[in-house]
């Protein structure tokens, strides 16, 4: 009796975790389609990349209930947490440098202010040229 | 469990379709990259859901591989896209293509006439 009820509890928890992960993936899909610019789309895209995936993996582990599979799933979560920030950093940097960031939608833009301050400190104008120089 | 798995599958399929919609519509390469990342994550979740439904462990290496290489594509495209000129995502009209072609030929002729070394020098040195 006790064994059966524990496995039932684990199945219910697994079902809840799988539902949560699928809901986060769906929310990411809606956000990716409806949000207005690149950074907002990246924001919604990261929801299933970490939390949604971890929920699905917890659900899968609760359903499988075996040791080796559990370690493989831990490995999946660790790899995803290591690699998705790299991808997000590269995409965000490329988006900023190619002007995909809409300034009017930002609340705070510390990077532009810092870059302007650094250029002023280096004695350069807005294009990165020394003062008085004309770019051909 | 079957009902939950069905609901999850429908949600994941909707997420995948929405991601494909953004990948088709996305104005820039980076929007498409983000959408394809969502598609990859949805794929991982779907494989996990199937493994949870049928209690199989032989598809878990697929999850490991996908979580390892899923970021390679977006990093590559981000490196590539950070060098693209502004206005790259635009499809040129026929008149614009003809005008650019005429300007290029004019530049070739001018370079060949000025230094006498032919069109090979001076024309393609513009992008350093």
TrEMBL record, chain A:
Keywords: Membrane, Transmembrane, Transmembrane helix. InterPro entries: PhaG_MnhG_YufB. The chain crosses the membrane at residues 12-33, 70-92. GO terms for molecular function: sodium:proton antiporter activity. Belongs to the CPA3 antiporters (TC 2.A.63) subunit G family. This is Na+/H+ antiporter subunit G. The lineage of its organism: Bacteria, Bacillati, Actinomycetota, Actinomycetes, Micrococcales.
Automatic annotation (TrEMBL), chain B:
Coiled coil: none annotated. It comes from Cellulomonas aerilata. This is PH regulation protein F. It is a multi-pass membrane protein. The keyword Chloroplast does not apply. It comes from the Bacteria. It is found in: Cell membrane. The chain crosses the membrane at residues 33-53, 60-81. Signal peptide: none annotated. GO terms for molecular function: sodium:proton antiporter activity.
